[in-house]
Every structure is written in structure tokens, then in C-alpha cells.
Amino acid sequence: MATASVTFKSREDHRKQLELEEARKAGLAPAEVDEDGNEINPHIPQYMSSAPWYLNAEKPSLKHQRKWKSDPNYTKSWYDRGAKLFQANKYRKGACENCGAMTHDKKACMERPRSVGAKWTNVNIAPDEKVESFELDYDGKRDRWNGYDPSTYTRVIADYEARDEARKKYLKEQQLKKLEEKDTEKDDENAGSEDDEEDGLRIDEAKVDESAQMDFAKVEKRVRTTGGGSTGTVRNLRIREDTAKYLLNLDVNSAYYDPKTRSMREDPLPDADPNDKFYVGDNQNRLSGQALEFKQLNIHSWEAFEKGQDIHMQAAPSQAELLYKSFKIKKEMLKSEHKDKIMEKYGNAASEDTIPRELLLGQSEREIEYDRTGRIIKGQDVALPKSKYEEDVFINNHTTVWGSWWKDHQWGYKCCKQTIKNSYCTGLAGIEAAEASADLMKANMARKEAAEDVPVQHEEKRLATWGTDVPQDLVLDPKKLAESLKKEKARVRGKEEERDEKKRKYNVHFDDQVTVEDMEAYRMTKIHHDDPMRAFLK
């Protein structure tokens, strides 16, 4: 596998080399060993295991894959901040014109600009800074904590501890002050009562140091620092005597426990007695306390944004909270107004007004019998509903309901005798106006009937040839009428030969004039479809 260099091999040697590699991969032959005695994995590809030709490697090895060009100049040290070197007594050529240091120029000087620089005064020459240059390796360049002094973090810890101590001291003082105020408010008569004794005990307990109380909730822990360490107080997440939440129910199908976040949302023991359980799942925390208030605040901001208000919970949380508080105040005001209206209309049963004795007792000697379902069988008449619609509802100034008046196959209002539904009531004036208009209409109709004349009856005119009127003194020739009848019958029966316009000679002329006799013959021989004797005319 890891051949040192490319050497010429015969076909037989190449075949044996391939068989040896296959045997090494299958585990039938021992693995190849490098010059240091380490085994070479036979599954490494050849392009990785074979060394380049310019290395002139005589034995198989994987050293060409390792970092063989290592720079000893790489370091993990850091700059010595604030270190000073030589401090001159007078100005030197090439130094900073402002402070006199040789390590920088006037443009890069970090001191306060002097009114007259050190170049001209030769006074207060600043010392030279320690300038260092490091050549860091790949990891050193990308280490964000390179050069950090851990001992500086002790000041942060001290600040937090001092803040906690001040807070605890302030809370103790406030608690003692409240308890003392309660003691002073009470009279001298109750000085020996049990309440005073309990308050005294509370004051004594408040004076006790916290280190003597609830020791199980604290543990002393030593924090390792460069300066030798400091002792701090770290609170436990739970009491050690309590059972872990993932051990409450060992059933695989029970509530899921996430080891990464240490959370168990569902109740591990849903069937157990609630009074005996101290843990009901993490969802209980999400549905109670400030989490529920925050959820309601989010819902209110979403609904307000959908209704057109410019509000966003993440962009302006203070504005959203103020709007939510104003919304709750208005909601409570509306509730109280609605409650006052209901109490004003129906009264308040919980008020101090005494209830009448008849209503309070509600007793009588009347016997009522019920069945198993609670229905009344005997002793009280069941009031049947008259209609499923609203009754005695008067609208538009009417004093009667719709359908209280009937005339000429139309329903209406009896108070104004109108037949238009949902119309405005006109009262007696409307009734008088309607009667006057009806009388006027009847008089007009009678006058119109009297003024009309009898229509002239026109006699039916007989149509002559081609739509002309038939005169009264029209006389038909019987001979011509008989000939016309023969021609018409022949034409109908199909005995007359059809005239061919192509075979007609030039001088031949047909008489196409229709006479009165021909027209009469056509009318006499015409078959009417509604004639019951039409079958005998052929």
C-alpha cells in the first residue's frame, strides 16, 4: 500500500501485489508496518498512502500526510500591556514631538496634546512603550480568548456578591419595618394576645441570619481563580431528597423527558391523586402566573394588529403593554356598566333589601305531581305557547300588530287601515285620506263608463283577386267558372303537363293573368286542414 517510490514491476509482481492487498483488506494477511513499527490501515486509498517521488522514501510510511513543516517561532504568548522601557531625559531625534517617546510619532500619540510639545521643552519625556510582534499559528489567530487574564473576573464576581448582599440587607430592613408598624398600630388592650406573640416570633425569625435557615437550599462552593479562589453561594435546583422527574414513572409510553433541556411537559402521573403530587409537568408553569399574562398580552397584540392598529409586541413591547392595560380597564368598565343595567332592570337578589315573605318561603297547599323525568302530571295547568313568533310588538308608531285588519283579500294594520307592511302609522288622518281617495276613484270610474260610446261594428270584407275588396255587385260567369274549376282540379291531380320553358318556341305566349273566376275556383277547391270532410274532396 504505502510504497516508497514508483518502481518498475512485472505483470506477475503486480498481480501478487494486488492479491496481497485484497488479503490484507479481508484480514487474511497481516497489515503493512511502517518504519516506526505502526500498522498501516489497508483500506486507505492509494493516492493517500503512496508518497511523492521527490521524498525518496525507501520504506512504507504515512509521514508525508502529517504536518512535517513545523515553525518553531509560533507562540501562544500575548502582549505585555502597559509595559514601559527606557525613559530619556531629553528629546531624541525621530521621537514623538508631543510626548518624546521613540515608539510612535505625533499622529499616533495617545497622550493629551500639549500646548508646547516635548520637542521644544525637553520636559516630561514619556517612556518608550514595549512593542512586541508575535507570529501566531492557525489556532492562535482565531482564539477569541487569547491574551485574556482570568484573574480580572474576580472583580465581576465581587460586584455581584456586593449587590446581592445589599439587596438582602434592604429586604431585611423593609420586613422589620413592616412588622414594627403592625405592632405599633395595635392597642394596649391586645398586647397580651396571641397575635402579638406571633408577630414577635416573626420579628425574631426575621433577625436570624439566612445562613441558619433553609440550609438545604444552599451549598458552599469554591470558585477556582488565579488569585487563590473565593467562596460563593450557589443554590441547588432541587432538594436532594426529592425524586427526579424522569424517575416518577418508568413506563416507556409515559411523559417524554428531554435530557438536553431537562424538561418534561406532560404529567408523568396523570391518574394519581392531585393532592399527593408535587410535580404535574412543565406545562403547568406555562398556564399559570406571569406566563399566562404574557400569553394573553401576545394574543391581544396579534388581534389588535389584525384589526388595523400599528402595534408589534417585539418591536414596541412597552406600547403593547400600555394598550393591553387600557384595554383591560375599558373592558372592566363595560362589564360594570352592563352589570348595572341588568341590576337596574331585574334587580339584585344579593342586595340588602329584604325579600317579601311570600317570595322567600314560596309555600302553598297546592299539590303538584311530577313524573320521573320532571314533567308535571297533575296539579298545574301547563301553559302552552300561542305562537313561536314575537307577540304584541308594535313598530313604527302602530298601536296594533300586522294582521289585525283584513280587507279586499289583504292584511293590514287596524289602527290606520294600511295594507303595506312595516309602513309608518298615519292614524285617523290616514283613514280619512284613504276613504276620500277611494270615493274619488269610484266617481271617476262611473264618469268614464258614462262617457264611453258603443263601438262601431265593422262588416267583414271579402277579399277579391290579389287582396282587393269584393264589390257587392260582383257577377261571375258560370262558363268561365266551370272551366276554371276543371283547370284547378287538373292541376291539383297532376294531369296537366308541366310547361318547359326551354322547349317553348320563341313566338309561343302563355296567358298568366288570373281572373276572378280562377280565384273563385281556387277558393272552392282549397282543402282546409280543419275540415272533417277533407278526405272526400280528392
Automatic annotation (TrEMBL):
Subcellular location: Nucleus
A GO CC annotation given for this chain: spliceosomal complex
InterPro entries, per database record: Slu7_dom, Splicing_factor_SLU7
Region Disordered: start-end pairs: 1-42, 179-206
GO molecular function: pre-mRNA 3'-splice site binding
Pre-mRNA-splicing factor SLU7 domain residues: 136-404
GO biological process assignments: mRNA splicing, via spliceosome
Protein origin, superkingdom: Eukaryota
Subunit: Associated with the spliceosome.
Task of the protein: Involved in pre-mRNA splicing.
A Pfam family annotated for this UniProt entry: Slu7
Species lineage: Eukaryota, Viridiplantae, Streptophyta, Embryophyta, Tracheophyta
Family annotation (PANTHER family): PRE-MRNA-SPLICING FACTOR SLU7, STEP II SPLICING FACTOR SLU7
Major location (coarse): nucleus
Family listed: Belongs to the SLU7 family.
Keywords: mRNA processing, mRNA splicing, Nucleus, Spliceosome
Biased composition (Acidic residues): 186-199
Protein name: Pre-mRNA-splicing factor SLU7
Organism: Miscanthus lutarioriparius
Compositional bias ranges of the Basic and acidic residues kind: 9-25
